[in-house]
Amino acid sequence: MLERLFRAADRRKWTLALAIATPVWIALMRMLLERYLSLGDVPLRRPAFPWFAHIVTFYLTMSVTLSAVLVVLGRLQWKQAMNQVGMGLALGCLPPIIDTLVLGRGKFAYEYAPSSFPWLLSGPNSVLPPGETTTLWLTIALMTFAVWRASKSVLRTFATTVTTYALVLIFLVGIPAGSQWLSARTAMAPSDWRNALFGVAAMFGVVTLLGQWKRVVTRVPQVLLPMLFVALGAAQRGVFDGPATLAAVMVALLGIGFTLANDWYDRREDEAAGRTTTLDENAAEWLALVPLVFVAHVLATRVELGLALVGFAVVSFAYHADPLRLKCVFPLSYKTEGFLGGLCFFAGLVAATDQQPSTQSLWIALLVTIGTPIALVFKDLKDVEADAQAGVKTAFVVGEKRGVSRLTLRRIAAAGLTLSLVLVSVWSGQLALIAVALAAPTALIFVKNETRAVIAATLLAEVLLAASVAAKLSA
Protein backbone atom coordinates (compact mmCIF):
# COMPACT_ATOMS: atom_id res chain seq x y z
CA MET A 1 0.00 0.00 0.00
CA LEU A 2 2.68 2.49 1.06
CA GLU A 3 4.90 1.50 -1.87
CA ARG A 4 2.00 2.11 -4.26
CA LEU A 5 1.50 5.62 -2.90
CA PHE A 6 5.16 6.46 -3.38
CA ARG A 7 5.15 5.04 -6.91
CA ALA A 8 2.10 7.13 -7.73
CA ALA A 9 3.89 10.22 -6.43
CA ASP A 10 6.96 9.37 -8.52
CA ARG A 11 4.87 9.05 -11.69
CA ARG A 12 3.11 12.36 -11.20
CA LYS A 13 4.41 15.28 -13.23
CA TRP A 14 5.62 18.18 -11.08
CA THR A 15 3.93 21.49 -11.84
CA LEU A 16 4.32 24.89 -10.25
CA ALA A 17 0.56 25.25 -9.84
CA LEU A 18 0.29 21.98 -7.92
CA ALA A 19 3.33 22.81 -5.78
CA ILE A 20 1.60 26.00 -4.61
CA ALA A 21 -1.95 24.64 -4.55
CA THR A 22 -1.04 21.75 -2.24
CA PRO A 23 0.01 23.80 0.84
CA VAL A 24 -2.78 26.31 0.13
CA TRP A 25 -5.42 23.58 0.06
CA ILE A 26 -4.02 21.85 3.16
CA ALA A 27 -3.91 25.21 4.97
CA LEU A 28 -7.52 25.95 4.05
CA MET A 29 -8.70 22.55 5.28
CA ARG A 30 -6.66 22.79 8.47
CA MET A 31 -7.97 26.28 9.19
CA LEU A 32 -11.60 25.21 8.72
CA LEU A 33 -11.15 22.05 10.78
CA GLU A 34 -9.50 23.95 13.64
CA ARG A 35 -12.15 26.65 13.48
CA TYR A 36 -15.11 24.31 13.76
CA LEU A 37 -13.65 21.36 15.65
CA SER A 38 -10.97 22.53 18.08
CA LEU A 39 -12.48 25.93 18.88
CA GLY A 40 -15.99 24.55 19.12
CA ASP A 41 -18.38 27.39 19.96
CA VAL A 42 -15.60 29.80 20.98
CA PRO A 43 -15.68 32.96 18.80
CA LEU A 44 -12.76 33.48 16.44
CA ARG A 45 -10.51 36.11 18.04
CA ARG A 46 -7.91 36.49 15.29
CA PRO A 47 -8.01 38.05 11.80
CA ALA A 48 -8.89 35.30 9.37
CA PHE A 49 -6.55 36.16 6.49
CA PRO A 50 -3.32 36.55 8.53
CA TRP A 51 -4.17 33.25 10.25
CA PHE A 52 -4.69 31.56 6.89
CA ALA A 53 -1.50 33.13 5.46
CA HIS A 54 0.46 31.85 8.45
CA ILE A 55 -0.77 28.28 7.94
CA VAL A 56 0.12 28.47 4.23
CA THR A 57 3.65 29.64 5.03
CA PHE A 58 4.00 26.86 7.62
CA TYR A 59 3.09 24.09 5.17
CA LEU A 60 5.09 25.64 2.34
CA THR A 61 8.16 25.76 4.59
CA MET A 62 7.58 22.16 5.65
CA SER A 63 7.26 21.17 2.00
CA VAL A 64 10.53 22.67 0.77
CA THR A 65 12.66 21.81 3.82
CA LEU A 66 11.54 18.18 4.00
CA SER A 67 12.02 17.91 0.23
CA ALA A 68 15.55 19.23 0.69
CA VAL A 69 16.19 16.43 3.21
CA LEU A 70 15.10 13.86 0.62
CA VAL A 71 17.36 15.43 -2.01
CA VAL A 72 20.43 15.55 0.25
CA LEU A 73 20.04 12.25 2.11
CA GLY A 74 17.91 10.25 -0.30
CA ARG A 75 19.61 11.63 -3.42
CA LEU A 76 16.26 12.10 -5.13
CA GLN A 77 15.67 14.59 -7.92
CA TRP A 78 14.12 17.73 -6.48
CA LYS A 79 10.81 17.40 -8.33
CA GLN A 80 10.48 13.76 -7.26
CA ALA A 81 11.21 14.77 -3.66
CA MET A 82 8.58 17.52 -3.74
CA ASN A 83 5.98 15.15 -5.16
CA GLN A 84 6.58 12.67 -2.34
CA VAL A 85 6.46 15.35 0.37
CA GLY A 86 3.40 16.92 -1.25
CA MET A 87 1.61 13.59 -0.89
CA GLY A 88 2.51 13.53 2.81
CA LEU A 89 1.30 17.09 3.44
CA ALA A 90 -2.24 15.75 3.46
CA LEU A 91 -1.44 14.45 6.95
CA GLY A 92 -1.86 18.03 8.12
CA CYS A 93 -5.63 17.62 7.95
CA LEU A 94 -5.68 14.63 10.31
CA PRO A 95 -5.03 16.10 13.82
CA PRO A 96 -8.36 17.96 14.28
CA ILE A 97 -10.27 14.94 12.97
CA ILE A 98 -8.42 12.45 15.21
CA ASP A 99 -8.67 14.70 18.26
CA THR A 100 -12.39 15.26 17.74
CA LEU A 101 -12.97 11.51 17.56
CA VAL A 102 -10.81 10.84 20.64
CA LEU A 103 -11.51 13.87 22.85
CA GLY A 104 -14.66 15.50 21.50
CA ARG A 105 -15.40 18.78 19.76
CA GLY A 106 -14.01 21.88 21.47
CA LYS A 107 -12.00 19.87 24.03
CA PHE A 108 -8.53 20.34 22.56
CA ALA A 109 -6.29 23.07 21.17
CA TYR A 110 -2.93 23.49 19.48
CA GLU A 111 -0.24 25.67 21.02
CA TYR A 112 3.06 26.31 19.33
CA ALA A 113 6.05 27.37 21.44
CA PRO A 114 4.73 25.45 24.49
CA SER A 115 6.11 26.36 27.91
CA SER A 116 7.81 22.97 28.36
CA PHE A 117 9.98 21.39 25.68
CA PRO A 118 8.04 18.51 24.05
CA TRP A 119 10.86 16.02 23.49
CA LEU A 120 8.31 13.29 22.72
CA LEU A 121 6.22 15.67 20.56
CA SER A 122 3.34 15.25 22.98
CA GLY A 123 1.69 17.35 25.66
CA PRO A 124 -1.59 18.25 27.35
CA ASN A 125 -4.76 18.29 25.26
CA SER A 126 -4.63 22.09 25.22
CA VAL A 127 -1.12 22.09 23.70
CA LEU A 128 -0.24 18.91 21.78
CA PRO A 129 -3.23 16.54 21.83
CA PRO A 130 -2.97 12.92 20.61
CA GLY A 131 -3.91 13.67 16.99
CA GLU A 132 -1.09 16.17 16.54
CA THR A 133 1.42 13.87 18.25
CA THR A 134 0.41 10.93 16.05
CA THR A 135 0.70 12.98 12.87
CA LEU A 136 4.12 14.39 13.76
CA TRP A 137 5.58 10.95 14.44
CA LEU A 138 3.93 9.62 11.28
CA THR A 139 5.66 12.38 9.31
CA ILE A 140 9.03 11.30 10.71
CA ALA A 141 8.26 7.66 9.89
CA LEU A 142 7.29 8.45 6.29
CA MET A 143 10.43 10.54 5.74
CA THR A 144 12.51 7.67 7.13
CA PHE A 145 10.80 5.19 4.81
CA ALA A 146 11.27 7.48 1.78
CA VAL A 147 15.04 7.66 2.27
CA TRP A 148 15.36 3.95 3.04
CA ARG A 149 13.36 3.20 -0.12
CA ALA A 150 15.66 5.40 -2.21
CA SER A 151 19.07 4.63 -0.68
CA LYS A 152 18.89 1.34 1.26
CA SER A 153 21.51 2.96 3.50
CA VAL A 154 21.18 2.53 7.26
CA LEU A 155 23.31 5.61 7.93
CA ARG A 156 21.34 7.86 5.58
CA THR A 157 18.06 6.53 6.92
CA PHE A 158 19.08 7.18 10.52
CA ALA A 159 20.29 10.67 9.58
CA THR A 160 16.91 11.34 7.98
CA THR A 161 15.06 10.32 11.15
CA VAL A 162 17.22 12.62 13.29
CA THR A 163 17.06 15.53 10.83
CA THR A 164 13.29 15.32 10.40
CA TYR A 165 12.79 15.14 14.16
CA ALA A 166 14.99 18.24 14.57
CA LEU A 167 13.07 20.11 11.86
CA VAL A 168 9.74 19.25 13.50
CA LEU A 169 11.01 20.67 16.79
CA ILE A 170 12.29 23.80 15.03
CA PHE A 171 8.91 24.41 13.41
CA LEU A 172 6.94 23.40 16.50
CA VAL A 173 8.98 25.20 19.16
CA GLY A 174 12.04 26.98 17.80
CA ILE A 175 10.48 29.40 15.33
CA PRO A 176 7.42 30.26 17.49
CA ALA A 177 9.66 30.79 20.56
CA GLY A 178 12.09 32.85 18.51
CA SER A 179 9.27 35.02 17.18
CA GLN A 180 8.01 35.67 20.71
CA TRP A 181 11.54 36.58 21.84
CA LEU A 182 11.95 39.03 18.95
CA SER A 183 8.46 40.42 19.53
CA ALA A 184 9.26 41.24 23.15
CA ARG A 185 12.35 43.19 22.08
CA THR A 186 10.93 45.07 19.12
CA ALA A 187 7.34 45.84 20.15
CA MET A 188 6.09 44.00 17.06
CA ALA A 189 3.53 41.24 16.74
CA PRO A 190 4.94 37.70 17.03
CA SER A 191 3.23 36.88 13.73
CA ASP A 192 5.49 39.37 11.91
CA TRP A 193 8.62 37.60 13.09
CA ARG A 194 7.13 34.13 12.74
CA ASN A 195 6.45 34.85 9.07
CA ALA A 196 9.98 36.20 8.57
CA LEU A 197 11.61 33.22 10.29
CA PHE A 198 9.53 30.77 8.29
CA GLY A 199 10.55 32.71 5.18
CA VAL A 200 14.23 32.35 6.04
CA ALA A 201 13.75 28.62 6.69
CA ALA A 202 11.84 28.19 3.42
CA MET A 203 14.48 29.97 1.36
CA PHE A 204 17.17 27.89 3.08
CA GLY A 205 15.21 24.82 2.03
CA VAL A 206 14.71 25.98 -1.56
CA VAL A 207 18.38 26.84 -2.04
CA THR A 208 19.38 23.44 -0.61
CA LEU A 209 16.70 21.67 -2.65
CA LEU A 210 18.03 23.16 -5.89
CA GLY A 211 21.72 22.91 -4.96
CA GLN A 212 22.36 26.63 -5.29
CA TRP A 213 24.48 27.44 -2.23
CA LYS A 214 27.60 28.14 -4.29
CA ARG A 215 25.65 30.67 -6.34
CA VAL A 216 24.25 32.29 -3.20
CA VAL A 217 27.77 32.84 -1.86
CA THR A 218 28.97 34.37 -5.13
CA ARG A 219 25.89 36.62 -5.29
CA VAL A 220 26.15 38.04 -1.76
CA PRO A 221 27.06 41.57 -3.01
CA GLN A 222 23.97 41.66 -5.26
CA VAL A 223 21.71 40.53 -2.40
CA LEU A 224 23.32 42.90 0.10
CA LEU A 225 22.77 46.02 -2.02
CA PRO A 226 18.92 46.08 -1.78
CA MET A 227 19.20 45.51 1.98
CA LEU A 228 21.47 48.55 2.24
CA PHE A 229 18.90 50.63 0.36
CA VAL A 230 16.33 49.53 2.96
CA ALA A 231 18.78 50.61 5.67
CA LEU A 232 19.16 54.01 3.96
CA GLY A 233 15.38 54.46 4.09
CA ALA A 234 15.28 53.49 7.76
CA ALA A 235 18.16 55.86 8.53
CA GLN A 236 16.25 58.68 6.84
CA ARG A 237 13.36 57.83 9.19
CA GLY A 238 15.83 58.12 12.07
CA VAL A 239 16.00 54.59 13.46
CA PHE A 240 16.88 51.10 12.26
CA ASP A 241 14.30 49.23 14.32
CA GLY A 242 12.40 45.97 14.21
CA PRO A 243 10.18 46.96 11.26
CA ALA A 244 13.25 48.02 9.25
CA THR A 245 14.90 44.68 10.05
CA LEU A 246 11.76 42.89 8.88
CA ALA A 247 11.80 44.92 5.65
CA ALA A 248 15.47 44.08 5.07
CA VAL A 249 14.85 40.36 5.64
CA MET A 250 11.93 40.29 3.20
CA VAL A 251 13.88 42.22 0.56
CA ALA A 252 16.75 39.76 1.02
CA LEU A 253 14.41 36.80 0.44
CA LEU A 254 13.06 38.39 -2.73
CA GLY A 255 16.57 39.35 -3.80
CA ILE A 256 17.93 35.82 -3.36
CA GLY A 257 15.01 34.35 -5.27
CA PHE A 258 15.21 36.67 -8.27
CA THR A 259 19.02 36.80 -8.32
CA LEU A 260 19.25 33.00 -8.54
CA ALA A 261 16.34 32.77 -10.98
CA ASN A 262 18.17 35.27 -13.18
CA ASP A 263 20.72 32.53 -13.98
CA TRP A 264 18.00 30.84 -16.03
CA TYR A 265 16.87 34.04 -17.72
CA ASP A 266 20.53 34.93 -18.46
CA ARG A 267 21.35 31.52 -19.91
CA ARG A 268 21.99 32.84 -23.43
CA GLU A 269 24.40 35.52 -22.19
CA ASP A 270 26.10 32.98 -19.92
CA GLU A 271 26.51 30.51 -22.78
CA ALA A 272 28.13 33.27 -24.82
CA ALA A 273 30.56 33.83 -21.93
CA GLY A 274 31.27 30.10 -21.55
CA ARG A 275 29.17 29.63 -18.39
CA THR A 276 26.38 27.12 -17.79
CA THR A 277 23.41 27.12 -15.42
CA THR A 278 22.12 24.17 -13.40
CA LEU A 279 18.59 25.60 -13.24
CA ASP A 280 15.63 24.90 -15.47
CA GLU A 281 12.54 27.03 -16.01
CA ASN A 282 10.58 25.34 -13.20
CA ALA A 283 13.38 25.94 -10.71
CA ALA A 284 13.60 29.61 -11.71
CA GLU A 285 9.84 30.06 -11.29
CA TRP A 286 9.95 28.32 -7.90
CA LEU A 287 12.80 30.54 -6.68
CA ALA A 288 10.93 33.67 -7.68
CA LEU A 289 7.55 32.57 -6.33
CA VAL A 290 8.33 31.15 -2.88
CA PRO A 291 9.28 34.51 -1.27
CA LEU A 292 6.04 36.06 -2.57
CA VAL A 293 4.01 33.77 -0.30
CA PHE A 294 5.68 35.37 2.72
CA VAL A 295 5.22 38.85 1.24
CA ALA A 296 1.47 38.13 1.16
CA HIS A 297 1.49 37.83 4.96
CA VAL A 298 3.32 41.18 5.26
CA LEU A 299 0.75 42.75 2.94
CA ALA A 300 -2.01 41.54 5.27
CA THR A 301 -0.43 43.08 8.39
CA ARG A 302 1.70 46.04 7.18
CA VAL A 303 0.06 47.44 4.08
CA GLU A 304 2.60 50.13 3.11
CA LEU A 305 5.58 47.81 3.53
CA GLY A 306 3.71 45.00 1.78
CA LEU A 307 2.95 47.23 -1.21
CA ALA A 308 6.60 48.26 -1.45
CA LEU A 309 7.64 44.59 -1.40
CA VAL A 310 5.04 43.63 -4.00
CA GLY A 311 6.26 46.51 -6.15
CA PHE A 312 9.84 45.28 -5.77
CA ALA A 313 8.78 41.77 -6.82
CA VAL A 314 6.77 42.97 -9.83
CA VAL A 315 9.56 45.25 -11.09
CA SER A 316 12.14 42.50 -10.50
CA PHE A 317 10.06 40.09 -12.57
CA ALA A 318 9.69 42.64 -15.37
CA TYR A 319 13.44 43.29 -15.24
CA HIS A 320 14.62 39.66 -15.28
CA ALA A 321 11.98 37.45 -16.87
CA ASP A 322 10.44 36.91 -20.27
CA PRO A 323 8.45 38.25 -22.00
CA LEU A 324 9.33 41.78 -20.83
CA ARG A 325 12.95 41.24 -19.74
CA LEU A 326 13.57 44.96 -19.42
CA LYS A 327 17.25 44.42 -18.63
CA CYS A 328 17.73 43.93 -22.38
CA VAL A 329 15.94 47.17 -23.32
CA PHE A 330 18.16 50.24 -23.31
CA PRO A 331 17.74 52.61 -21.45
CA LEU A 332 14.71 51.10 -19.66
CA SER A 333 17.03 48.60 -17.98
CA TYR A 334 18.65 51.38 -15.96
CA LYS A 335 15.34 53.09 -15.22
CA THR A 336 14.04 49.78 -13.88
CA GLU A 337 17.06 49.46 -11.58
CA GLY A 338 16.24 52.94 -10.33
CA PHE A 339 12.73 51.84 -9.40
CA LEU A 340 14.14 48.83 -7.55
CA GLY A 341 16.47 51.05 -5.52
CA GLY A 342 13.70 53.54 -4.82
CA LEU A 343 11.27 50.83 -3.70
CA CYS A 344 13.84 49.38 -1.28
CA PHE A 345 14.48 52.85 0.15
CA PHE A 346 10.72 53.38 0.43
CA ALA A 347 10.33 50.02 2.20
CA GLY A 348 12.75 51.14 4.91
CA LEU A 349 10.98 54.48 5.08
CA VAL A 350 7.45 53.11 5.64
CA ALA A 351 8.27 49.89 7.51
CA ALA A 352 6.97 51.30 10.82
CA THR A 353 3.20 51.61 10.54
CA ASP A 354 2.98 54.35 13.18
CA GLN A 355 5.17 56.82 11.27
CA GLN A 356 4.32 58.69 8.09
CA PRO A 357 7.25 59.78 5.90
CA SER A 358 7.90 63.49 5.69
CA THR A 359 7.76 65.43 2.44
CA GLN A 360 11.55 65.75 2.54
CA SER A 361 11.90 61.98 2.88
CA LEU A 362 9.67 61.40 -0.14
CA TRP A 363 11.77 63.81 -2.20
CA ILE A 364 14.89 61.90 -1.16
CA ALA A 365 13.19 58.65 -2.17
CA LEU A 366 12.57 60.18 -5.60
CA LEU A 367 16.22 61.27 -5.77
CA VAL A 368 17.32 57.71 -4.93
CA THR A 369 15.10 56.39 -7.74
CA ILE A 370 16.63 58.84 -10.21
CA GLY A 371 20.20 58.44 -9.00
CA THR A 372 20.42 54.66 -8.70
CA PRO A 373 20.73 54.06 -12.49
CA ILE A 374 23.55 56.61 -12.69
CA ALA A 375 25.39 54.85 -9.87
CA LEU A 376 24.94 51.32 -11.23
CA VAL A 377 26.10 51.78 -14.83
CA PHE A 378 29.50 50.40 -13.83
CA LYS A 379 28.19 46.90 -12.99
CA ASP A 380 27.82 46.00 -16.70
CA LEU A 381 31.54 46.40 -17.35
CA LYS A 382 32.35 42.76 -16.57
CA ASP A 383 30.07 41.27 -19.27
CA VAL A 384 30.45 43.60 -22.25
CA GLU A 385 31.41 40.94 -24.82
CA ALA A 386 28.81 38.41 -23.64
CA ASP A 387 26.09 41.10 -23.55
CA ALA A 388 26.97 42.24 -27.06
CA GLN A 389 26.88 38.68 -28.39
CA ALA A 390 23.52 38.00 -26.70
CA GLY A 391 22.01 41.29 -27.88
CA VAL A 392 21.75 42.88 -24.44
CA LYS A 393 22.05 46.64 -24.84
CA THR A 394 23.96 48.03 -21.88
CA ALA A 395 25.59 51.46 -21.75
CA PHE A 396 28.94 49.84 -22.56
CA VAL A 397 27.59 47.90 -25.55
CA VAL A 398 25.75 50.93 -26.96
CA GLY A 399 28.72 53.22 -26.27
CA GLU A 400 31.24 50.99 -28.05
CA LYS A 401 28.93 50.65 -31.05
CA ARG A 402 28.99 54.44 -31.28
CA GLY A 403 32.77 54.56 -31.21
CA VAL A 404 33.36 55.43 -27.55
CA SER A 405 36.43 53.70 -26.11
CA ARG A 406 36.18 51.25 -23.21
CA LEU A 407 38.40 53.47 -21.05
CA THR A 408 36.19 56.50 -21.65
CA LEU A 409 33.12 54.47 -20.77
CA ARG A 410 34.85 53.32 -17.58
CA ARG A 411 35.54 56.93 -16.66
CA ILE A 412 31.94 57.95 -17.33
CA ALA A 413 30.65 55.09 -15.16
CA ALA A 414 33.16 56.02 -12.44
CA ALA A 415 31.99 59.65 -12.57
CA GLY A 416 28.37 58.59 -12.08
CA LEU A 417 29.34 56.36 -9.17
CA THR A 418 31.43 59.16 -7.63
CA LEU A 419 28.57 61.66 -7.82
CA SER A 420 26.15 59.22 -6.22
CA LEU A 421 28.46 58.20 -3.36
CA VAL A 422 29.46 61.80 -2.62
CA LEU A 423 25.78 62.74 -2.34
CA VAL A 424 25.23 59.83 0.06
CA SER A 425 28.20 61.05 2.14
CA VAL A 426 26.73 64.55 2.30
CA TRP A 427 23.34 63.10 3.27
CA SER A 428 24.97 61.19 6.14
CA GLY A 429 26.29 64.42 7.64
CA GLN A 430 29.86 63.09 7.73
CA LEU A 431 31.83 64.86 5.01
CA ALA A 432 34.89 62.82 5.98
CA LEU A 433 33.19 59.88 4.24
CA ILE A 434 33.77 61.59 0.90
CA ALA A 435 37.31 60.20 1.01
CA VAL A 436 35.83 56.70 1.34
CA ALA A 437 33.37 57.50 -1.46
CA LEU A 438 36.25 58.05 -3.87
CA ALA A 439 37.69 54.56 -3.29
CA ALA A 440 35.05 52.69 -5.32
CA PRO A 441 35.34 54.72 -8.55
CA THR A 442 39.14 54.72 -8.21
CA ALA A 443 39.12 50.91 -8.16
CA LEU A 444 36.79 50.92 -11.16
CA ILE A 445 39.29 52.90 -13.22
CA PHE A 446 42.62 51.45 -12.14
CA VAL A 447 41.90 47.73 -11.60
CA LYS A 448 42.65 46.27 -15.04
CA ASN A 449 40.69 43.02 -14.75
CA GLU A 450 37.12 44.12 -15.46
CA THR A 451 35.41 41.49 -13.30
CA ARG A 452 37.64 42.29 -10.34
CA ALA A 453 37.13 46.01 -10.93
CA VAL A 454 33.35 45.62 -10.71
CA ILE A 455 33.54 43.40 -7.61
CA ALA A 456 35.94 45.81 -5.87
CA ALA A 457 33.83 48.84 -6.76
CA THR A 458 30.65 47.10 -5.57
CA LEU A 459 32.11 46.06 -2.22
CA LEU A 460 33.68 49.48 -1.59
CA ALA A 461 30.42 51.21 -2.48
CA GLU A 462 28.54 48.96 -0.07
CA VAL A 463 31.05 49.76 2.69
CA LEU A 464 30.38 53.45 2.05
CA LEU A 465 26.60 52.92 2.18
CA ALA A 466 26.87 50.99 5.46
CA ALA A 467 29.13 53.68 6.96
CA SER A 468 26.71 56.40 5.85
CA VAL A 469 23.77 54.58 7.46
CA ALA A 470 25.73 54.25 10.71
CA ALA A 471 26.70 57.93 10.61
CA LYS A 472 23.13 59.05 9.94
CA LEU A 473 21.72 56.94 12.76
CA SER A 474 24.33 58.15 15.25
CA ALA A 475 23.83 61.82 14.40
Description:
By secondary structure, the chain is mostly helical. It has a domain at 1-186. It is 76% helix and 0% strand. The chain is built from 22 helices and no strands. Helix 5 packs across helix 6, helix 8 (190-209) packs antiparallel against helix 13 and helix 11 (242-265) packs antiparallel against helix 15 (332-350). It is a multi-pass membrane protein. GO terms for molecular function: transferase activity, transferring alkyl or aryl (other than methyl) groups. Keywords: Membrane, Transmembrane, Transmembrane helix. The chain crosses the membrane at residues 14-32, 52-73, 162-181, 193-211, 246-265, 286-318, 338-354, 361-378, 427-447, 454-473. One of its GO terms (cellular component) is membrane.
Euclidean distance between termini CA atoms? 68 Å
Helix vs. strand class: mainly alpha
Strand content: under 5%
How does the overall form come out from the CA principal axes?
globular
